[in-house]
Please model this.
Amino acid sequence: MAEDYILELKGITKIFPGVKALNNVQFQLRRGEVHALMGENGAGKSTFIKVITGVHAAEEGEMFLNGKKVRFKGPRDAQAAGIAAVYQHPTSYPELSVTENIFMGHEIRKFGMIQWNVMNQEAQKLLDRLDADFSPTEEMGALSVAQQQMVEIAKALSTKAKIIILDEPTAALTQSESEKLYRIVDQLKEEGVSIIFISHRFEDMYRLASRVTVFRDSQYIGTYDVDGITNADLIKAMVGREITDMYPKPEVKIGKEIFRIEGMTRTGYFKDVSLNVHAGEIVGLSGLVGAGRTEVMESVCGITKPNAGKVYLDGKQCRIRQPLDAMKEGIILLPEDRQKEGLILNWGLGQNVTLPIQSELAHSGFNDTAAEKKVAKQYLEEVDTKAVSIYDPASSLSGGNQQKVVVAKALAQKNMKVVIMDEPTKGVDVGAKAEIYAIMGELAKKGYGIIMISSEMPEIIGMCDRIYVMCKGRITGCLDRNEATQESILQLSMEKGNTKKEVAQG
Amino acid sequence: MAGKSGREISIASNKSALSRVLSWEGALVLIFIAVNILGVILSENYTAANVLRQMPRYLAEIFILFPMGYILILADIDISVGSIVCLSATMACFAGNAGLPFPVVILVCLLVGLICGAVNGAILAKFTELPSMIVTLATQIIFRGIAEVSMGSGGTISYTNSADLIPLTTMAGPFPISFFGVVIAAVIFIVVLSKTTFGRKLYAIGSNKTAAYYAGVKVEKIRFIVFSLAGLMSGFCALVLLSVLFSANTTTGQGFEMEVIAMAVFGGIATTGGKGNLVGGFIAAFIIVCLRVALGLINMNTQLILVIIGLMLIIAVLMPGISQRIKTMKKMAKQS
Model:
């Protein structure tokens, strides 16, 4: 072999009952490179990672490590061979300390006793290497998602891993936290660690990877040099069709003000938040994770009780004490966590869509299932959900399609005036993202007011007419479409004082 | 914004007639028949008329089965119902012995149950972080404690105007009147659960409380209502029990909570919430009643009967897992 591959997989096929999750795929990882693995949800990336880490055994195919053929019987074999994975959702023990999490399963022992001091020192060394700002004795659960991810990376390093796999490492991170992760990855690369990472974000790939491999529908599509590929090419490879306009922001005549909140305050979460939305307007709410964006909107919708603040709809003040009140007024929230807050996963799609309106369709308390089916079918088809029947359980859909069901659920509420979308494209693949943006555009055209909370700069800038930025529970500014740039938003998102430094590094 | 792909989403139910017959309810009907055949084999006295005559003393607790089914579907539990039965029965005795007219006695009995249930419900709705198991464990002790204190040192109280209770023990043809009570309650509870928005909300809360709340379901109000209902139905249970026993004592209703939970689980309701229906629970209840009558007729030791019911329960909760495993194995066999 001319190339020096640290890891090579050939002809991998993995079959789950009923589906071919991987169909004859291949992959080559050069020594010391950062290699992106991309594809839509359900393309087979995660299964592939699990084959590499020994969680799944492939039915067919060969794997070579340093040119030698290997066969992992379980995750332990992969770990022993120097392969470690950091998963999308940190798989940690929140009640234990950072040190315990790092050394879980391979504690440092002497005469059978755990050597706490040695372990803490080792953990500190690893954290120093990652430039972490927390101590190894802290409780895991008290850390932010970004910090927990660092612990997971430290854990990978503690096993002396030569190959580290990062599964959607930036999905839950803000811009500045992502920057920090980028620097860590750069550093690991310099130290000679080879890295595979999965991401939906193109920025990640451009910033980090030298090569990118694309999977689609369980098949290998190709491997490309990042320098030589355009966004459009890559999307075409991933989706199988061209997406001409990622952000189809329609030209909508902005109408009169329909929604306004004044002086919303909830002690400890946000203070004196005021904003307004006009008919047909898409308003962004940006800021770092933890700035209080979700919390404000949850209070607006009656999910939590604010200490002060007024909500006006069409100039009239509304009294909202519980979620039902907000829904009756026509303020519809699409919650951030689809799986926990947006859907009942073991229910069929149809009943999920009609849950909020079942009482309206019902006759003296008795469900009108025929009417419900009709409504569910109508709206699920309207948002083009990829499903066979309204009885398909919500858990069987991909992230993007689950989001579409949540949108259908909102649309089914006829009195909707304002729709608040909290991270509508989080964990959604590029094809479905474009469809969700298109739906947002259509809603704006129809004259609804739209608020989008998002941590993804490109979509905020691409879709919004106006962007409010929050920092530490307060609104720090409002930018018009033409003055919004990544820098201007970031500047407002940062606390004064370290603004310059962060932006300079960004 | 009609779907670009023009994809059709089917609204036809994907359940075949065969799969309905093969459901757990179908299996329960078979078990019910089997138990009755067993009864006939075991004892020549196992006749329809005899079973129905013996039934009332076992029927009482079935009243609590229905609200307990609701509570389990909410992913909650109420272990205070046995104590509520005791307190309601005790108070009804006091009311009767004080010479109050019988309709008022009935009202007292039901009202005491309702109030106890409402106390449970109010605590749980107000302090949402408390687990229902612990709250009802506490009220279990409290309610029975109040009953015991009121009964005084004897630890028992009899219903002196026993003639009052005669109407409750009338037979309508071969059927005891309380049997009709159970059937009426069953129909109401089953229809409400399966056909109304209220029933759907119960499943929503039990499946995903947060998502239900976000979708506008008044979670705490519904929990309050359901726990209050459990109290009210415990009152009914106490009435039927009084008509059989003519007295209450410190052990009245003891263990009822576990027996009705067993019936519900046997009937296919998952204690993890959101699953199952009361049709299964209703059939399961009569399986257990018939089994008890049959084994009672051959003078089997009561404790031994409990052992048998316990074994049946374990098999019942294992069944879904086993049938799932068989299904997967069949699938695998097809593919290879």
In short: Chain A has 19 helices and 22 strands. Confidence is low (pLDDT under 50) at residues 497-506 of chain A.
